[in-house]
Design a protein that fits this description.
Layout lengths: L3 H14 L3 H12 L3 H4 L5 H15 L2 H11 L4 H10 L30 E6 L5 H13 L4 E2 L9 H13 E8 L1 H5 L1 H13 L2 E6 L18 E2 L4 H17 L11 E4 L2 E5 L17 E5 L2 E4 L5 H11 L4 H5 L1 E5 L4 E5 L26 H15 L8 H9 L50 E7 L19 E4 L15 E4 L8 E3 L2 E2 L3
Length: about 500
């Protein structure tokens, strides 16, 4: 799935290259062999381009769209810049492969059908940060979302595009605040939507009902995100939109991101300060990482189940018929053990939907990331071991996420004190400086990084290719104190699946 900034760059480049509806229609017919009228109705060029990009994304023809536009207008500066940028976006059409399973040719593309604007997102420019957050969440939930970002308010082009988009939109989500309440344009969009008889869902982002809610919406129930954005969006906004619009992705594919700022941190251990350090954690050194986001908790059973339901993915353990389990006396390949039955056929995860998923190979985790990237519109990958460690300990070189004090049963799940996984986030007192949870104990977590024996001349390799052992971090519910330290490292083959190993994800670009 394309991200918001990618859609915006494509849209602006196409608008700069094709200045009229006729030019756009000719390009679509010549390069894509379809009729523009079959993709979208109306005459407003900006709305037509919005629909064209949505259609290309849904039919797996984004790369073809960009190549055709450049072929028609190779001298256009915006298309040149887009061509360079798109080269770094990865597989633009990963969501719509051109061949079926087994390598056989895919069925012919169906005739195009007109795309729809599911949601018109109205806001004051003072609330742009909230708007962008909502835009990402609504797009990630599977709906097409229109905003006027990039248009100059009040101009004839802006008014024409707004009216056309509102006529085509199935509902209006409006960000309410004192600034929005005073905005002539926001109130005009609300009034026009009311005249059209469309559903309006207000989102109260700032102020109160007196300062932020316009008179026309006083009897409309709003979603209040002031105190808890994520809870309100997941618990109220998305369910309301699903009831009205249908579709949308279930909540389990969403992540509670924490931002880790740009800067240096202390990686590894110093045995003078940590007597439990292993040699492979040496030497301690400073490492600079750019900003990134990391999921607050490991991937849960519910999230992994959504992935399997959407893709039919068969895990390594399911394919081989077993996973490695500690039986109490030895490690054994237990038949029938897999992510649904972590200790074998007599166990199950029906009552553990909020526990970390386990019995997952590194390859399974990679497959989940590819899918999550596609359905959320965000780049989702496994963390490097450096990114994992910085999120776990911050910048001061602390031994555990909470500081240098040894762990207790109130800080993390370790040393067999519980004897099994626990629900993610069960130990808030054990949070890292950035707020990451379960960084000590519960489950070992795969990272992207290939194993090296120590940090002498450290050159980390996160290339997904190859069968080299990958690094794991964090310890688990059955491992002792020495293994739940932030700097502790473990390794295993990428095709190994263990009953105490899971993973969490990061998003490097935002």
């Amino acid at each position: 799935m394309l991200t918001g900034p990618q859609i915006k760059q494509i849209r602006e480049a196409l608008l700069s290259a094709f200045g009229s509806r006729d030019e756009l229609a000719m390009f679509v017919r010549e390069e894509l062999d379809v009729s523009l009228a079959a993709i979208a109705g109306g005459d407003n060029l900006r709305v037509l381009v919005f629909h064209l990009v949505q259609w290309a994304e849904s039919t797996g023809r984004v790369a073809e769209l960009l190549a055709g536009a450049y072929n028609q207008n190779p001298g256009n500066p915006a298309l040149k810049q887009l061509r360079v940028a798109a080269a770094g976006w990865g597989d633009l059409d990963a969501a719509a492969p051109s061949t079926a399973a087994g390598g056989t040719p895919a069925a012919p593309r169906p005739a195009p059908s007109p795309t729809a604007i599911d949601i018109f997102l109205a806001y004051s420019h003072h609330d742009s940060a909230t708007m962008r957050r909502l835009y990402t969440d609504l797009r990630g939930a599977g709906w097409s979302v229109w905003t006027d970002e990039g248009l100059e308010p009040g101009t004839p082009i802006w008014q024409e595009a707004i009216q056309e988009a509102l006529r085509q939109a199935r509902c209006l989500v409006v960000v309410l605040s004192p600034h929005a309440s005073k905005s002539h344009w926001v109130n005009s969009e609300i009034s026009y939507t009311l005249k059209l008889g469309r559903r309006i869902i207000p989102v109260l982002a700032d102020g109160d009902d007196l300062s932020a809610v316009p008179l026309s919406l006083t009897n409309t129930q709003w979603v209040d995100v002031r105190a808890g954005y994520r809870q309100a969006v997941e618990g109220e906004l998305l369910p309301a939109l699903r009831r009205h619009l249908g579709g949308g992705l279930p909540a389990p594919v969403r992540f509670d991101w924490i931002t880790i700022p740009d800067g240096e941190f202390l990686m590894g251990s110093d045995k003078q300060n940590d007597s439990l350090a292993w040699d492979d954690e040496l030497p301690q050194h400073r490492l600079h990482l750019p900003a990134y986001r990391i999921a607050r908790v490991p991937v849960t059973v519910a999230q992994f189940a959504a992935f399997v339901a959407a893709t039919g993915h068969k895990t390594t353990a399911e394919a081989r018929g077993f996973a490695r389990v500690w039986t109490g006396t030895k490690w054994d390949d237990v038949k029938g053990a897999n992510w649904l039955h972590p200790r074998g056929p007599d166990s199950d995860v029906a009552a553990k939907q909020d526990h970390p998923v386990t019995c997952i190979s590194w390859h399974d985790a990679q497959a989940f990331c590819v899918w999550a990237t596609r359905v959320t519109g965000e780049t989702v990958v496994l963390p490097s071991e450096a990114a994992w460690e910085k999120a776990a300990r911050g910048t001061d070189g602390r031994i555990y996420p909470w500081g240098n004090e040894p762990p207790t049963e109130h800080l993390c799940n370790f040393a067999g004190k519980v004897g099994d996984t626990t629900a993610v986030g069960s130990y808030p007192a054990g949070a890292s400086p950035y707020g990451a949870l379960d960084m000590a104990g519960n489950v070992w977590e795969w990272t992207a990084t290939k194993w090296v024996d120590n940090y002498k001349k450290y050159l980390p390799d996160d290339d997904p290719a190859g069968d080299a052992s990958r690094t794991l971090r964090g310890g688990s519910f059955d491992y002792l104190v020495r293994f739940v330290r932030c700097a502790c490292r473990f390794r295993d083959s990428p095709d190994v699946m263990l009953f105490n190993v899971g993973f969490r994800v990061v998003s490097p670009g935002f």
